[in-house]
Automatic annotation (TrEMBL):
InterPro entries: ArsR-like_HTH, HTH_ArsR_DNA-bd_dom, HTH_MetalResp_TranReg, WH-like_DNA-bd_sf, WH_DNA-bd_sf
Occurrences of domain HTH arsR-type (ranges): 12-106
UniProt keyword Aminoacyl-tRNA synthetase present: no
Tagged with keyword DNA-binding: yes
The entry's keywords: DNA-binding, Transcription, Transcription regulation
Organism: Streptomyces noboritoensis
Protein name: ArsR/SmtB family transcription factor
Amino acid sequence: MSTATSKRELDHPARDEIRLEGVLHALSDPIRLRVVRDLAGTEGELSCSYFDLPVTKSTTTHHFRVLRESGVIQQTYRGTAKMNGLRRTDLEELFPGLLDRILEAAALQGARVGG
């Protein structure tokens, strides 16, 4: 099991610990799916402050924790900023095509219902 080695290092599951049900749960929430869509649209990482989410700071923190603990994102500290990156390679190796299909479905739904 993966564990953090210092206060500034966050705990992430190892690739072989990522489970489909955890990924699907993480992506089932519209706020978390929005974060993942934004991350998928960039080549690098985005800081937590980049995201302007319609929830409280503590709820935002919860959403990022769910994404990290499910193995969907990788979070690292750079100075005082917490940077977020999509674990696309890990997810593609474990569940080929899943992330792309979910992102496509989310885009289609957004076009259909406005969001």
